[in-house]
């Protein structure tokens, strides 16, 4: 063949010339299969002989392939449209479709009597799953073949391959669910309220939300408010009363278990029922954002279609974008062929389950959606592909490749949050580089509340919402490999502060020789995963990705070089007068709530040892408590350099399996997991090595039977089972000793009244009742003496980075109850008798007239400011609701009313 294009470059004075050969000039012939193909550009071999011939694949291509010619398969998953899924089931049952690849959608409820073979790609999570999946075959009494493949790179599979009796003949354990998880209980409570309110949500969200808007405006701006009859039902006091009564009946047997948690107090049910209507409305905010974005795009592209000054190419692009926006609107309105009813992601009930407002069970909670424009079907058709957030942060990351229904799609742009300024709305947060703890940027602290170390701030954070893809017909193998390399993900965590308490419970892990570690458990803790960039990014490249501020498209380095800075710069125009694209560098992140366990070792370990111990404990927990490997994740926490002392374990399932709670609360749970881990690492009960070189299955530092898995491949070189043998042996003898729990709000109320350093007056108890009734933060102490300011405020709050003193002026009879001072709003049982204020400055208990007390409070306020305190005054005649709203940073947001 002739030379295509030539090129040259100079190197040390030498002119080098290269040629590109046209691929059409080659003729390809089948080889004999006896000698291997050697490509020195992709791989070299020390011997020079090249790769060996694999006889299995040689036989597959020579013989088996011809027999399989014409055989085709289809997938059966929740992402396939229900009508199409039903057609595939029918074709499969009639043998027109010979092979069906299924997710667990086929595990229950699908009965094909003639099915005679089931092949499981991996070992199921539990014997119960195995029984369900294998039971699909042979239902008419005919013989059936059940084949289970055990992946060598999956430690879960390898464990059951060596102990198959536990799977095929094991007892079916009852389902595990953490019934005391606050999010799970709240979703069921809200379902009770929905039933008592008598709301019928229909089959589409427009039956709940009014999508109408005024005609004639430049752009459609629908308010997207609830329909009047829905909004009226949200505030039905009788429905709330019925819901409270029903909830007490349904949850009555679980109340003792709730009382042992960090989130429960005796008014929790009433507070959640009162706020259920507001939370119901807020749950539709994601749908509102999707709908507004699609409607806005439809309007913009329609104007471009009608603009005859555009080139034919640009108009064609606008037509395609308009059709895509219309398809999105039809999906959001559930107006698609077949209507998909309750199986649609945008059926109101299923949507509320995905938002976590209703019980979701198998649905992904708080998902990230990717719009797939064609999904391999006709022009203009599309669908939303949904993934859990912690999967989506990488699978739907900038420029990531998504494979769906046999086609390849590129994540091209992201839905931008609305902004009145027209710029990208980003945020900042603080993460402790010593323990990984997460802090909001506005919490007023410069030191970590977990470990006390200084914090670092990350700017330009963009919360990942819906992404949009475009089909990629062709992509080079090099580009595909670069994109598959993945992203640099960083995890931070924060114990729940819902119910205005830390949501953290500690236990000390110790044996007779002393403490080993501290276990810090938190249910519904906040987990944030941040995408800092690609794994194969340049060494000097800053964190984040370039984003087009106009349409949310991810930009290449070339595009970014031609764009201009941020919204603070003047727009730039090119030589033709066209305005250049505006860019911003952003760092995508996602957040969700999970049950977590932070293990803090008393003695830090070298990083390889710590990592080996973490993987061993993860494997031991999974095997001892029958968890699938995807149900539990673990990672080492910072610092990133030097010895490590903290592990983070996270339960992936919604509501959690309750295993991490057991590890913290049950004295022998960790020892049980350690004993199992010791066996998995090929050690006997006394530490003897059972996998030496002279045994049937020798293991040196680690193998796929013990600690190595496909997911931890980057750590294989450092994992060493021998380095943790003594640690595991010690862990088999430890016990967890709980270190108490946070007070309930009722207990805190009693302490504030009963343990105050000076007597609490009636108006001060009235104030406590006001805070408790509205779900606001209760103070830490009542009437304490502050030596550095020589002051005795009524209450104090000690929050991260700030100390707050509260003074309440005036007498109880002058106090405005709630917003207007009516006796009806006063909390039951609160003493409203009039008392003069005790002295506020010198600590004496002598009574003073109100005016004198106010004057003393003014003096004390100045001294407190000088000592670094913040002061909040509730003066006579103030509206208490307004005052706490102005200081929500101190009192919390309270319950929606």
Automatic annotation (TrEMBL):
SUPFAM superfamilies: P-loop containing nucleoside triphosphate hydrolases. Gene3D superfamilies: P-loop containing nucleotide triphosphate hydrolases (3.40.50.300). InterPro entries: Helicase_C-like, MZB, P-loop_NTPase. Residues 739-748, 823-839 have a biased composition (Basic and acidic residues). Residues 40-185 form the Helicase C-terminal domain. PANTHER family: ATP-DEPENDENT HELICASE HRQ1. This is DUF1998 domain-containing protein. It comes from Streptomyces katsurahamanus. The lineage of its organism: Bacteria, Bacillati, Actinomycetota, Actinomycetes, Kitasatosporales.
């Amino acid at each position: 063949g002739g030379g295509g294009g030539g090129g040259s470059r100079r190197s040390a004075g030498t002119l080098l010339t290269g040629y590109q050969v046209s691929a059409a000039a080659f003729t390809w012939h089948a080889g004999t299969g006896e000698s291997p193909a050697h490509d020195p550009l992709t791989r070299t071999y020390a011997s020079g002989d090249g790769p060996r011939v694999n006889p299995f694949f040689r036989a597959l291509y020579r013989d088996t392939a011809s027999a399989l010619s014409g055989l085709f398969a289809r997938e059966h998953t929740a992402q396939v449209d229900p009508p199409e899924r039903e057609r595939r089931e029918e074709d499969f049952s009639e043998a027109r479709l010979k092979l069906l690849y299924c997710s667990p959608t086929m595990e229950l409820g699908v009965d094909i009597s003639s099915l005679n073979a089931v092949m499981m790609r991996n070992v199921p999570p539990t014997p119960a799953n195995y029984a369900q999946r294998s039971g699909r075959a042979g239902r008419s009494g005919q013989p059936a073949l059940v084949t289970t493949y055990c992946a060598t790179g999956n430690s879960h599979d390898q464990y059951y391959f060596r102990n198959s009796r536990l799977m095929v003949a094991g007892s079916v354990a009852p389902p595990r669910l953490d019934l005391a998880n606050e999010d799970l209980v709240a979703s069921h409570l809200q379902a009770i309220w929905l039933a008592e309110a008598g709301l019928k949500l229909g089959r589409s969200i427009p039956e709940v939300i009014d999508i109408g808007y005024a005609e004639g405006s430049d752009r459609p701006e629908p308010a997207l408010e609830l329909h009047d009859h829905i909004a009226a039902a949200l505030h039905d006091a009788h429905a709330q009363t019925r819901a409270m009564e029903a909830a007490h009946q349904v949850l009555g047997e679980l109340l003792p278990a709730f009382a042992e948690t960090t989130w429960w107090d005796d008014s929790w049910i009433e507070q959640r029922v009162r706020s259920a209507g507001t939370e119901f409305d807020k749950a539709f905010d994601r749908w509102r954002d999707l709908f507004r974005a699609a409607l806005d795009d439809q309007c913009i592209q329609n104007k471009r279609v009608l603009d005859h000054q555009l080139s034919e190419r640009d108009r064609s692009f606008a037509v395609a974008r308009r059709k895509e926006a219309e398809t999105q609107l039809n999906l959001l309105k559930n107006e698609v062929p077949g209507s998909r009813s309750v199986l649609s992601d945008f059926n109101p009930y299923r949507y509320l389950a995905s938002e976590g407002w209703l019980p979701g069970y198998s649905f992904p909670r708080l998902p990230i959606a990717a719009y797939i424009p064609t999904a391999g079907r006709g022009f203009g058709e599309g669908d939303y592909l949904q993934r859990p957030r912690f999967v989506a942060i990488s699978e739907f990351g900038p420029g990531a490749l998504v494979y769906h229904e046999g086609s390849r799609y590129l994540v091209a742009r992201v839905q931008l949050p609305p902004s009145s300024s027209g710029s990208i709305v980003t945020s900042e947060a603080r993460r402790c580089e010593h323990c990984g703890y997460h802090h909001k940027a506005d919490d007023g602290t410069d030191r970590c509340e977990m470990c006390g170390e200084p914090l670092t701030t990350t700017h330009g954070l963009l919360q990942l919402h819906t992404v949009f893809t475009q089909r990629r017909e062709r992509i080079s193998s090099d580009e595909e490999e670069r994109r598959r390399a993945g992203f640099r993900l960083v995890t931070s965590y924060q114990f729940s502060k819902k119910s205005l308490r830390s949501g953290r419970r500690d236990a000390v892990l110790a044996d007779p020789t002393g403490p080993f570690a501290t276990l810090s458990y938190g249910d519904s803790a906040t987990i944030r995963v941040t995408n800092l960039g690609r794994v194969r990014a340049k060494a000097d490249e800053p964190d984040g990705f370039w984003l087009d501020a106009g349409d949310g498209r991810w930009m290449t380095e070339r595009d970014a070089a031609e764009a201009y800075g941020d919204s603070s710069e003047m727009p730039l125009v090119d030589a033709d007068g066209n305005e250049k694209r505006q860019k911003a560098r952003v760092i995508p992140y996602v957040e969700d709530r999970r049950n977590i366990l932070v293990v803090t070792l008393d003695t830090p370990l070298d990083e390889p040892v710590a990592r080996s111990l973490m993987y061993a404990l993860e494997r031991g927990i999974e095997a001892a408590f029958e968890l699938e490997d995807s149900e539990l994740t673990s990672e080492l926490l910072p610092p990133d350099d030097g010895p490590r002392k903290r592990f983070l374990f996270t339960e992936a399932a919604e509501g959690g399996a309750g295993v991490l709670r057991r590890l913290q609360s049950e004295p022998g749970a960790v020892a049980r997991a350690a004993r199992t881990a010791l066996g998995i690492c090929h050690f006997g009960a006394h530490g003897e090595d059972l996998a030496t070189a002279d045994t049937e299955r020798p293991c040196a530092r680690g193998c796929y039977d013990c600690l190595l898995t496909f997911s931890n491949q980057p750590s294989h070189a450092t994992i060493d089972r021998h380095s943790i043998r003594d640690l595991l042996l010690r862990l088999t003898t430890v016990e967890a000793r709980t270190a108490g729990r946070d007070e309930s709000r009722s207990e805190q109320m009693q302490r504030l009244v009963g343990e105050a350093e000076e007597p609490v007056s009636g108006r001060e108890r009235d104030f406590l009742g006001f805070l408790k009734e509205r779900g606001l933060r209760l103070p830490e102490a009542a009437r304490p003496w502050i030596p550095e300011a020589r002051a005795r405020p009524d209450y104090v709050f000690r929050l991260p980075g700030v100390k707050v003193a509260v003074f309440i002026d005036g007498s109880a009879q002058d106090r405005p109850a709630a917003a207007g001072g009516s006796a009806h709003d006063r909390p039951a049982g609160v003493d409203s008798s009039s008392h003069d204020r005790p002295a506020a400055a010198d600590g004496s208990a002598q009574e003073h007239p109100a005016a004198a007390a106010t004057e003393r409070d003014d003096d004390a306020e100045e001294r407190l400011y000088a000592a670094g305190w913040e002061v909040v005054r509730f003066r006579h005649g103030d509206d208490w609701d307004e005052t706490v709203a102005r200081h929500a940073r101190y009192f919390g947001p309270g319950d929606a009313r």
